[in-house]
Amino acid sequence: MISREEFRQIRDNGLWQQNTSLVQILGLCPLLAVTTNLVNGVMLSLATIIVMAIANLAVAVLRNLIPHEVRIPVFILIVAALVTVVDLIFNARFHELYRVLGIFIPLIVTNCIVLARVEAFANKNPPLQALVDGVFMGVGMLWTLALLGGLRELIGGGTLFAGIDMVFPALHPLQLLPADYPGFLLAILPPGAFILLGCLIAWKNWVEARAAERKQRTGSHRVPPVAAAGGA
Amino acid sequence: MTLPLRTPTAAGMAVRTAIILLIFVVAFTSLLAAAYLWTRPAIEAAAAAEKMKLVSEVLPRELYDNDPLQDSVRLAASMALGLDEASPAYRARRGGKVSALVLEAVAPDGYAGKIRLLLAVAADGTLLGVRVTQHKETPGLGDYIEPRKDKNKERPWIRQFDGLSLAAVSDREWRVKKDNGRFDSVAGATITPRAVIKAVHKALQYVADNREQLFAVSPGEPR
Fold first, then answer.
1. Which of A55, A204, A210, B184 has its Cβ near the most Cβ atoms within 10 Å?
2. Residue B3 carries which DSSP code?
3. Which long-range contacts (CB under 8 A, 24 or more apart) does A224-231 make?
């Protein structure tokens, strides 16, 4: 079972404190290659969530059988096998979706986030906790990649949701900036991804520094402003 | 009766670890094999349907009453098509006569590597349609050669080829307007269309050079 406190901690770790892209800075290769637009970023993240949840669950179930000395090869074996199985099933059952997601699934094998979570968390925790950790680490990656992809797409081409019609044929991309917007190629090329990722990391650190400062200040006043405002 | 617990020797540990590793490898390899065998028929069917969909995009439905995917000839690797290995060409037949040919060509000089094309050529040498099947051109810049990425939805760039032929367009016109040819291109991304136009032109010449052979009703074939 999983306590509420435990669940909250795992969730917050995945979404913010240990965010894969902004804090652990893991899996940059697929991140940079894929986030040229919002839809691609979200799609890669969705595929990663599925794989990470299954891989974490599988390793947590088998963790007592895996000898410590050879755990890394076993993890790689498990992750690679699961990714391939997910790839095959997607290809067979959801062929249309596979045409869109297909290129991302093999990329997940190269993504060290999966191996990192398996080694750092699933190997030491019960299956349910590991499953929750896999999902929320993935969701943390999802919002970061969506933000990064969206920004790159908007700055680079003035659109948002380009390619959404490949996933949902009824929907259309949005042209947010004027149609004669010349585009800003740097945002779409890999260096632009590095620069924007750097900006996002700086933003996260700024938010945290401010929160820490506020906490310190309220600590000295001994009256939390939230409680004070509560009466109004 | 209880087994005495003894500290394992180094060799014993190594053997034990090796056996566990082996069990994992066998178990997960079997899982992979099972998944592969289980999904194979569905994947093959889906791939064929997808190919047919692509073929039907370049090939007007009224031109054939056969299943072009089942009526293929193998084209040997050739420089004119940019292919470094043999590839199938599909024949559309109407009433037994070959009415059109669907073949693959590769533009080797795209901005980011090869651009794979699928062309349909009618028996009289008219281009029925061209589609890009695979490319790595810059997203948002050179990828307008793909109709679904093209911002011009009414008349996507790639449809400029529809209805052209070697007879109607002189050799010098197979270029972008910037190079004094007849084809539009998007400013800032001319390497990509140049490569596609060149490949289409060469493929048409290939079909013209091998017309007899490609459109012959092979003897002994049904109908």
1. A55
2. P
3. none
Degrees, nearest 5: CA angle A194-A118-B16: 135
Q: Tell which residue, A61, A64, A102, has the closest CA to residue A84.
A: A102
Strand order from edge to edge, sheet including B97-110: B72-75, B87-94, B97-110, B113-122, B127-134
Among partner residues A66, A92, A165, which is closest to B148 by beta-carbon distance?
A: A165
CA B157, B160, B162, B166 torsion: positive or negative? Answer: negative
Q: Is the ipTM of this complex over 0.85?
A: no
Report in angstroms the alpha-carbon separations of B213 from B37, B101, B123: 39, 12, 12
Residue of chain B with shortest Cα separation from A179: B151
Residue-range domain boundaries for chain A: 4-217
Structural contact between residues B50 and A99, judged by C-beta atoms closer than 8 angstroms: yes
Decide if B154 contacts B82 (C-beta within 8 A): no
Q: Do A156 and B138 count as a contact with CB atoms less than 8 A apart?
A: no
